[in-house]
Amino acid sequence: MTSNVPVPKVKLPMQAIGAKIFHSVNIISLFLMLTSGLQIYNANPVFGGRAGLHIPPIFTLGGWLAGGRHWHFAAMWLFSLNLLWYGIYVLITRRWRRRFVGVNDLKALQKTQNSRRLAYAWHRIIYTTIIPILLLALLTGLGMYKPAQFPWIVDMFGDWQALRIVHFSSVPMVVIFTVLHSLLGRKAGGSQLTESMFW
Ligand code: HEM
Q1: First vs last C-alpha separation in the chain
Q2: pLDDT by residue (tens digit) across 179-195?
Q3: Alpha carbon of 102 to those of 50, 111, 131, 186: distances in Å?
Q4: What residue owns the CA closest to ligand 1's atom 5?
């Protein structure tokens, strides 16, 4: 028998509009940076040279080296300006004081018996790690983009080959982050929490 009683709508957690915009633009720009970066990588793989490991075309963007570079350098502005305004937003609104991992989360890891709190602590630890990952991609990318203006970035990592490897490492870091972040977000707050970051 079917009931006519309306099913109550689940209330989504409130998210600030600034966080939603940063989140969505970041996903789009990371997708473009990742796929166009892999296209550039394929022209001369950092692991094993021209005969080295190639990435299948389905994961690349641009069709060839110049196409990949065009995409990478265009999306670079979206990526870095989005990160810049988010940094300013986090400082002005003082979100940095409560939105990232804190001492309470670390205490919860050691003491709590509440599995939801534990998942939430891990969720906060993992999503906080994306900030240094993005900054590392930006720093090493800038070193590769303008080595004449920023030779100290190249020196900081040793040499050009080391800089390429560290820049490339942003690919596995972003992929692993995305998997863990999605799983932990669901574990901590179900599909409502995930959806609340978009609409
Ligand atoms: C998370 C974001 C990013 C990812 C996943 C990413 C990925 C990649 C990959 C896989 C490569 C090929 C590396 C190689 O084989 O040498 C590459 C190259 C490059 N990336 Fe990025 N990148 C990101 C962000 C950036 C940013 C923000 C900049 C600039 C500020 C940048 C500038 C460059 C430059 C200049 C190259 C070398 C292009 C060339 O040699 O023609 N990247 N990137």
Answers
A1: 34
A2: 999 999 999 999 999 99
A3: 45, 15, 15, 21
A4: 34
Q: What residue type is assigned to position 19 of the chain?
A: A
Decide if 89 contacts 18 (C-beta within 8 A).
yes
Compute, in angstroms, the gap from residue 85 CA to the centroid of ligand 1. 21
Instruction: Name the phi and psi angles at 115, rounded to 5.
Output: -65, -30
CA 141 to centroid of ligand 1, rounded, Å? 5
Q: Could you tell me the two tokens for 143?
A: 């070193």
For ligand 1, which residues put their CB under 6 angstroms from it? 30, 33-34, 37-38, 40-41, 46, 69, 72, 76, 79-80, 137-138, 141-142, 144-145, 164, 167-168, 170-171, 174
Maximum CA pair distance of the chain?
75
For tokens 């870091």, what's the residue? Answer: 173
Instruction: Give me the DSSP letters along 179-193.
Output: HHHHHHHHHHHHHHH
pTM of model > 0.85: yes
Between CA 97 and CA 104 the distance in angstroms is 12
Tell me if 165 sits within 8 A of 46, measured CB to CB: yes
**pLDDT band at 1; cut points 50, 70, 90:** very low
DSSP character for 97? Answer: G
The per-residue pLDDT for range 143-186, each reduced to its tens digit, is 999 999 999 999 999 999 999 999 999 999 999 999 999 999 99
